[in-house]
Each structure stands twice: as C-alpha cells, then as structure tokens.
Amino acid sequence: MKDTIQMIHGSGGRATGELIADVFAKEFDNDVLNQMEDSALVPGAGRIAITTDSFVVTPVEFRGGDIGRLSICGTVNDLLMRGAVPKYITCGAILEEGASIEVLKRVIHSMAQTALEADVRIVAGDTKVIEGHGGIYINTAGVGFVKKDVDISAENAKAGDVLLVSGTMGDHHAAILGERMGIENEIASDCAPLVDMVGNLLGAGIEVHTLRDVTRGGLATVLKELATASGREFVVEDENIPVTPAVRDFCGMLGLDPLYMGNEGKLVAIVPEAQASDAIEIIRNSRYGADACAIGRVTDGEPGRVLAKTAIGGERILDVLEGEGLPRIC
Ligand code: MG
Q1: What string of DSSP letters covers 116-132?
Q2: How far is the CA of 213 from the centre of ligand 1 (A)?
Q3: What is the block-wise mean pLDDT of the chain (330 residues), using blocks of 10 residues?
Q4: Contact at 8 Å (CB) between 6 and 18?
Q5: Is 266:190 a contact under the CB 8 Å cutoff?
Q6: Mind listing the pLDDT tens digit for each residue in 97-150?
Q7: Cis peptide, bond prior to residue 242, ω within 30 of zero
Q8: How far is the CA of 143 from the centre of ligand 1 (A)?
Q9: How far is the CA of 223 from the centre of ligand 1 (A)?
C-alpha cells in the first residue's frame, strides 16, 4: 500500500477493501464488525442494528436526488438489509468554506423529507466547517430494531436459492456520471429508501436468506462478496439482468459495464426457490420495485465463484470492481 491515501481507495472495489482491512478492521477488531455486513446486529433490549455511512457525492444535487436524500437512503437501506426496522439517524455535516447556504437548505430539507418517507427520526447531529472550495459532506449513522426471529445474513445463502434483483442496474451511477460530464439525457438516480419493499417481504413471511443493497462497485461486486461470504457459487444469466435502454446506451457510448455501476435504491435478495415467485410479486407491488426479477441461482459449485452466462452460450467470471470506478457517487 502507498504512503498516502489515493482516490482509488474510495472506489468501493479491491483497493477500498484492502484499506478497510489494513487500517480500520485491524484496529477496531471485534466479532460484530468483523462480519462486514450492511449493518451490525448487537445485543441489547431486544436486538438493534447499527450502521454508518459518509456521503461525498458531487454534484450535491442531481437528477433524481441530492446528497441529503442519499444520506438517508444509504443508511436506512443498510439497516434494512439485515431485516431491521430503521428507527433513528444521526447527521454529521462537514461544510467547506464557501458552500451555498441556499443549496444547503435545499439539501437538508430533502434529507428531512426522505426521513419522513422512511419513517426514521434524525435524533443527533453535528456540523463542522473547514477550509476548502464550497463542498458539502454528510455522515449519517442509523439504528434499527430487529425482531427476534429475523436472521438475514450473507452467509445464509443456500444451494438452490434464487437470486433476485429489485430493478434496473446502474441508474444512480450513470446519472451522476452524466451530470459530471455535462451529458444531456433522461437518466435519473434511483436513490430511494426500501422500507416498504423489505417490510412487505418480511411481513408476508418470505424466508429471506440474504439482502444486500447494490451500491458502489455495482451488482458484480455485490454478487462476488455474497458468494465469498456464503461459500457458494452464484450463476447468473446476463440477459435476465435488467438495465434501462438509456443506461445501456450510455454505458455503450462510454465503454462501461452496467454490472459495475452503482445504484442507491436497488437490492439483491436471496430466497428459497419455493418462495421466489411470491417474493418477486411482492417486490413488484412495493414502492420502487416495479422491475424486480430473478437473475440466477445459488449452487454448490466452486465456493466464492460468480459465473455470468451470456445468451449465446458464453460465460465469464465476475470479480469485485478493480480500479477506481469514478466518479464519487455517494
Ligand atoms: Mg450496503
């Protein structure tokens, strides 16, 4: 590892993983944090889930959202991915000298509106101002309550389970990249809290084995991480993975792979085969889940391998994102 932090350390790919392992996980070492889940399950009066995330996206306002909405969605969704009901949020704002107060007001309003939508309360906060160039950064921590019988974890994926996605891939990443490049198109961020979707799945008694929101690093990185954590092989059908025509065109134009493009309002669910069609129906009837579908299966093949099969009979092995995955999207 180099002596200084490089941009690549924020990519969400291999370099980020190595930085986290070498610096943070080593020092903060404990059995809860070491599971590296979307949020930690800790004992208490009942069980609570706790998570934190920092948001450094530029621009701070973009089609389909802004850093305020994003900062609630990211944290709420990480709590939901352990089957928690999100309850409390903290807000740490780091503002660079020169940041527009008008923009800040819009962002914080959006944050409050999204908290209402997600039915969480922002219960603690902190603001710091530093020298800089007008940037706005937000950190949120979140706490959620987990019912006694809920057990959702990466390691619960079993051979025969079905892999589902809740909608189209790459929308948020393409929206941010388009804004950064000044490209005029209709692509909007999918940034959304998935409270309704996860609540409906659990409420209907679907035996959800694993949930993971598809963020930095994209679907390919998420699948690889889940396959590794569960010690299973995942096999997906390329043609079943939903991508909007606009995002597909955008990726084609720039030579990008939508499977490595992040979202901020989509999830992967791993469910028993017997309940897969019910689960898809429930997600489709939930807010932000209209394009849900099955994309593949968990098998007892080579542990940790993710195979993507193409329509013409080819296959490729998916790995975690290598390289930077610019721009900063969350
Ligand atoms: Mg996550």
Answers
A1: HHHT-EEEEEEEEEESS
A2: 5
A3: 73 83 77 79 79 96 97 98 95 92 92 95 88 94 94 96 98 96 93 98 97 96 97 97 97 94 97 98 98 98 96 92 79
A4: no
A5: yes
A6: 998 999 999 999 999 999 999 999 988 888 888 999 999 999 999 999 999 889
A7: no
A8: 14
A9: 12
Distance (Å) from CA 37 to ligand 1 centroid: 8
CA 77 to ligand 1 centroid distance, Å? 7
Q: Ligand 1 mean position to 41 CA, how many Å? A: 14
Distance from the CA of 211 to the center of ligand 1, in angstroms? 9
| List of residues 6+ apart from 56 with CB closer than 8 A | 10, 135, 137, 328, 330
Question: For residue 102, how far is its CA from the centre of ligand 1 (angstroms)?
Answer: 30
Find tokens 């084609």 and name the residue: 252
255 is written with which tokens?
Answer: 């030579």
Separation of CA 269 and ligand 1 centre (Å):
12
Q: What beta strand segments (E) does 150-205 contain?
A: 162-165
Instruction: Quote the ligand 1 centre to 214 CA distance (angstroms).
Output: 7
Task: Say how many Å lie between the CA of residue 101 and the centre of ligand 1.
Answer: 30
**How do residues 51-85 score in pLDDT, each as one tens digit?**
999 999 999 999 999 999 999 999 999 999 999 99
Check: CB of residue 317 under 8 Å from CB of residue 307: yes
Write out the two tokens for 172: 């948020």
Decide: helix, strand or coil at residue 96. Answer: strand
- Ligand 1 centroid to Cα of residue 27, in Å, is 22
Taking the centre of ligand 1 as the mean of its atom positions, its distance from the CA of residue 38, in whole angstroms, is: 5
Tell how far the Cα of 215 is from the centroid of ligand 1, in angstroms: 6
Give whole-number Cα distances, 197 to 66, 165, 292, in Å: 22, 12, 11
Distance CA 222, CA 243 (A): 16
Q: Please provide residue 235's backbone torsions phi and psi, each rounded to the nearest 5 degrees.
A: -120, 120
- Whether the bond into 59 is cis, omega within 30 of 0: yes
State the sign of the Cα–Cα–Cα–Cα dihedral 228, 48, 146, 125: negative
CA of 245 to the centre of ligand 1 (A): 26
